[in-house]
Amino acid sequence: MNVLAPSSGIAAAPAHTFADPEARLDALVDLSQRLLAAARARGATQAEVSCSEEAGLNVNVRMGEVETVESTRDRGIAMTVYFGQRKGSASTADLREESLEATVEQACALARYTEDDSAAGLADAALMATDLRDFDTWHPWNIDPDRAIELALACESAGRDFDKRIENSDGASVGTGASLGVYANSHGFVGRERSTQHSLGVALIGGRGDSMQRDGWYTSAMAAEELESAASVGRKAAERTVARLAPRQIATGEYPVLYAAESARSLIGHLLGGISGGALYRRASFLVDSAGTQLFPSWFRIDEQPFLHRGYRSTSYDAEGVATRESALIDAGVLQHYVLSSYSARKLGLQTTGNAGGVHNLQVAANAGDYASLLKQMGRGLVVTELMGQGVNAVTGDYSRGAAGFWVENGELQYPVDGITIAGNLRAMFSAIEAVGTDVDERSHVRTGSILIGRMTVAGESAEE
């Protein structure tokens, strides 16, 4: 019997959401308990199950015409079993009884034939979350495909009509999705979560021939009423596109570099990659043995805030059921702790930080004003609005990426630039941060304003200024 089949009497819902999410979660909990029992019956000493179900609607238009309308339904069951310290995992999207039985059997068979791993096993039972909270993350959008198409067309039209130099489009899109998830393990822990996310965006092309430039904008939120309007998104995309027309080169040299907020997130991403347990125990990080050391200026701070109202990564427990906690990741410029799961923590002789599956809502503290004030503070230098390529060595921290943005003189934007490369070393870049602005880009679980680095190598034209 398919335990996820909706019961009779439940009202119909749009295809991109769930008629009764609590009933669906109840069914997923029931399924997880059956699978755990089946693993125990086969001799597993520990086991864990993750069950998920997602639904969504995505619409894409381009140049005033509908390109795609896609309704999605996905589900997945992933199971891990332990026989002592031997581990086996298997997954399925097929909920027929024979498929579920085969999934348990496959996971157990794999565990029986793998070697012991001293770090393997569930997180400690004493660390399981007990205070399971609601973060107001469930706001289904009752939008039909016709209305979604109308919004996407309005967004693209607002952008194309903004300036005659915008002659083409890469398209506009509207997306809405709902997800349900249950994690359960043989410690008796059961966690259930539900969330929604909606988006509206457009990418526009200005100019002609070799002088064409592309840019865009999007809005994203858990509740549809918090999205920017279609007209606003279209206009902002157009303004960004037109601003990039007729770019120039700049002379190769060393300059201050201001990462605009949407680009500044990448710097925090490199930090997270360097302090993640997997990279550390493999000694494949430029931040090995860096806990407790000064990485940033003394005023710099990053806080992890897993309990934010409508936070993108708000949760009471991580992917292993471990209770999350508010903590300072960076305090007074000093790295306070790594980002660890129970497995990576055991490999390092440490304890999990409740970050199996990643971090939960990072807030980079500002020490300066808004974007305009950061430009004034920089005076002369480069604003980076787009990064290209993957030129970052995770082991050494050496950094070299293609970039585009704007040249600044006397604290004012002068002209767009592209075809440049910015380079440095991440350790040196972190220590050279001079300011973080209040212009926070809230479209991510990593919340930061623009970040000003005092000096970086910028490769442009060959001549020195």
TrEMBL record:
Domain Metalloprotease TldD/E C-terminal stretches: 252-460
Residue ranges constituting the Metalloprotease TldD/E N-terminal domain according to the UniProt record: 47-111
GO molecular function: metallopeptidase activity
Transmembrane segments annotated in the record for this chain: none
Name of the molecule in the record: TldE protein, part of TldE/TldD proteolytic complex
GO BP of this protein: proteolysis
Pfam families assigned to the protein according to its UniProt record, in alphabetical order: PmbA_TldD_1st, PmbA_TldD_2nd, PmbA_TldD_3rd
Family listed: Belongs to the peptidase U62 family.
A GO CC term attached to the entry: cytosol
Organism the protein comes from: Lysobacter capsici AZ78
Signal peptide: none
Domain Metalloprotease TldD/E central span(s) in chain numbering: 139-245
